[in-house]
Write a structure and sequence with these properties.
This protein is α+β, with helices and mostly antiparallel strands. It has helices at about 1-15, 35-50, 60-65, 75-80, 175-180, 270-280; strands at about 70-75, 100-110, 110-125, 130-140, 145-150, 155-160, 165-175, 190-215, 225-245, 250, 255-265, 285, 290-295, 300-305.
Amino acid sequence: MKKKLSLFLAILLLQVSFPLNAFALETNHELNANQINLVNELLDTRLALIGQEDYSMLDKIDQDLISLGVKKLTFNEVMGINCNEISPYVEHPVTDNMYWYSYWESYKYNGIQYRVQTVIAQPKKGYASSLLMSGHHVIEKEPSIDWIAGSVNAASVIAYSGVGELIPGASISITIYDSVKAFVSGISKITKITSASISYAYSHTAEVRFKYVRPADAPANSESLAFICSKGITSVGYQYPEFNFIGGSAEPNVIQGKQTVESIPEKYDDNKTAVEAYVNMYTGACDYVSRVKITGPESKIVSYIYPPVPSHPWQLVG
């Protein structure tokens, strides 16, 4: 419910034209907490729309992001952040298949003020991208195995973090009964399915954030990449080409639906983690969605999805 409300509020924001303030024209202007909340609402809506292949509002969202103080970057500008960082040679031009955004904010740690630059990568419409993953699969019921409508899951999704732990709130499942009850009469939770097949179409849309940190009084362009994190939205659509049970049947592909789950690791977008990594000179600080497991009846695998786990922005392009 909370997620639906957030998405509704973000869509309402799209109906408002934010005035272009002076701060929006300053590359390194720091956003306040209210501005960042609005920015994240818009970016969340944007990612969800990309996952639905609905690009109609993306330009409007970009205009609102810029008006709030977000800078839209090119890949070359991303590569230019902290020119002292060691990065591999990348031939130019490259296929920049990402949208890049950046904003600054302040964070106080142990009494010292730091500046944090967050660089966000989202998949670009019309391009193949490592942040967009999709596929299809079919599971058929074996005659020797009983499927009881209320006891067997039609689809389940579970997402894991980089350390292999289940991400809180990033799991969802639906039983065969719940997936078909709106389409089939005469079925109950104890109904035995005699023959069936389920066709799945799944997708995962990811966002990656790179956090660069430097002390507030340090020179410009002296920030270092300190923390990387990702999140994603997984959608699983299903339909039944065949569905027969004791007492009835359904027309092919009449039964269909979709399950969607958002995977947000515990430390996603966490400035404290970024600044601590910078202060302690810890390299490799990250919190990724490392794996998404999609299963059907009898826990049969529909797909394993492995979102990218980059250590630098250049690894996302191409």
